[in-house]
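Subject: sequence -> structure tokens, single chain

Hey, anyone have a minute? Need the predicted structure for the following. Not urgent.
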Amino acid sequence: MGYRGLVPLLVLVGFMAGPRPGAAADPFWGADPLWNLLHEPAVSRAMGLSPAQRRRVRGVLDEVDAKFFPLRNQPPATSGPVAAALLTDTQDRLAAILSPTQMRRLAEIGIRQRGPAALLQPPVAERMNYTPQQRERLETVITETQGAVRELEKRVADGAPREPAEEEYRDLKRDELRRVTGILSPAQRTTWKKTLGAEFDLAALGRPVFKAPELVDSGTWLNSQPLSLEALAGKVVVVHFYAFGCINCIRNYPTYLAWQERFRDRDVVIIGIHTPETATEEDVELVKQKATAAGFEFPVLVDRTKANWDAWGNSMWPSVYLVDKRGDLRHFWPGELQWKGATGDAWMQERIEELLAEPVEPAADR
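Reply:
Had a minute. Here:
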């Protein structure tokens, strides 16, 4: 059960997207990068949103998040068109809230995030006015770099050490930038600089804030009355999907038990969502017996119909999500927390402590 090999891959992808490996809250990598940017606090600050604008933008995003999350575990042929339509609708709604200058700043940051690959996108390419030879050379450099990055991701997914891979990634991107810059004429370099707009620190990215899907009450809870994230506002919530026959899940149990003790008298609620993969795991009594034998004192929601699995767009056993005091999804770890030497247990525990230390800010300040 589970998809253990994805853990190191997503750790590396997390590094590529921002400064903190594994920090990305939304693992729907097939989404347009703009989707994540819209949820980045650093981007909101860079656009200079007023408190009223922040409230309105968050209202739009919270509404659309509930529609977006179920797409995460669907095949691209199904999720792609729906996600694209949602993003287009979101952009149209935001255009009525933001000024043209703010919308342009959002676009500039998006281009910075894409890096040299953005040079081949139609709006940018039209401004650059490449010769056929330049376009061919750019396509070669960018395609070669993308291929090298995919190979690097595969090696990390197969268990290669992360730190050397991170340095190799940096070298690849530095070399790509050097080669691309050498292809552009002085006038094109000036146009490229103007297209990027004012400086923006990409290291500030990688901290998206999404509205966590609400729990779907299946009618069967262990160790608790029915709970909702709305009712748990003011507490940090750890949500983990598991199945009692999943060896990958079982290997995470010691961490859940350690957190159960460490955070027992603090504002942390651990919730297990048991979603069956086999017919045997659909037996509620067996779920209860296994949870008791494992030492779980925290609430367990028996998700026999996979209603929560689908609402969260979850795709693997185990998966661990961290929800902050405002009900926002902040961090995510797919698979075993200690797979092949990973330190997801310590990393996620640090994130829980950080979320505990955060004040409950009003929506306008998110």
